[in-house]
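Annex B. Sample input.
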Amino acid sequence: MSESREGAKKANPDDMWADLQTGNLDDILEYVEDFVDMMGTDLDVELERERDALVVNLIGPDSQMLLDYGGEVLDAMQVVLGKILPRKFGTTLRVLMDADGFRVAHERELIELARRLADKVRETGEHEELSPMNSMERRIVHMALSNEEGVVTESTGEGDIRRVQILPEQAAEAGT
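Annex B, continued. Sample output.
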């Protein structure tokens, strides 16, 4: 289990997890398994908690097809189940769909990159800019650095070229 990350509300992820009753995990697992079975795929379902999310990991021979075309099928499943599961089972956790651990590994890589670049910004006093990212990736970077001393983050650009900048805190304060 990776370390806790605090959101904009500074909510404790353990409190959010407590909203999901232990009995409901079995119900959620059964619901998602039925959902996946209706798709006609050969996938097993695993549930786990990763920071402030309920991770639904789909494992099996058909998992790679979920990642094709930039993970569009996985994204669509995340939107659908992300709306249904909180309403049906009363959890405040966000739902993160994954296939063979791809997204969780990618999130960890983004966090590691963000922290390395934050160290560089503190060391050099120069800002760093990451390559364009989707909104979920940008959120991961912002959250990973939200409690890091000496740096701040901001998103710049528009549309598909939106990216995160990591700035020295004093430079950001001077700009306001």
